[in-house]
Amino acid sequence: MSATLTDTPRTGRTPRPRLLRGLNWLVVRQHRAALLSLLAVTVLGSIWIVYQRGKMSQALEAAGWPDKQLSQPSFASTGLSLTVTALGALPVILAVFLGATLISGDQEHGTAQLITTQSVSRRRWVTVKLAWCYGAVIVSGAVLSAFFTWWWKPYRSVFPSLWPEGPVFDNTGPVLPALGLFLTAAGITIGMLLRRVLASMAVTFVFAAFVEVVWGELRVLLAPSRMVTYPLDGDMPARLSESHELDRWIGSADGHLYGWGLCAKTTEAASDTCVKEHGIVNNVVEYLGYDQMPAMQWTAAGILLVATAVLTAFTLWRVSRSPL
Question: What sign results for the dihedral spanned by CA atoms 308, 314, 317, 321?
Answer without folding.
Answer: negative
